[in-house]
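Sequence in, structure out. Go.
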Amino acid sequence: MKDLVLLAIAACLAAAPAQAQDTSSNETELGRKEYVVACAGCHGATGKGDGPIAQLIDITTPDLTRLAAQAGGRFPFRETLLTIDGRNDLRAHGSEMPIWGDRYMSASESVAMAQFPGMSAEVAQAITRGRLLSLVYYLDSIQQE
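Output:
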């Protein structure tokens, strides 16, 4: 029963794209919290690429508020999602050990199970995907020209 409740919560997180544009929405707030936990260290509190860890790594940390501008004015949702979860081969994100560990490696059942011991694989993957989608919706919400 516990797994079913958690699956329902994760499904709600993952299935609300229409509300993501509203910066006061719950989904965007969840994404902001994910951003603070997993991204702000390198990309900074505002997404400009000026986090405290950015100076310690030997690659340029991109300004995440300009992703849409760099993609011709439309937020590159799919590419952003693939970069975060490691499917796009970006050195800091797509290596065997991404900088955030396995937090968004939703494609791997064994990783999801390790993150959420005692849960079914489906629930663990749903929670991981909910985190990822919330984060991408948040990044969409902070785009600037």
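Check: Confidence is low (pLDDT under 50) at residues 4-24. The chain is about 50% helix and 0% strand.
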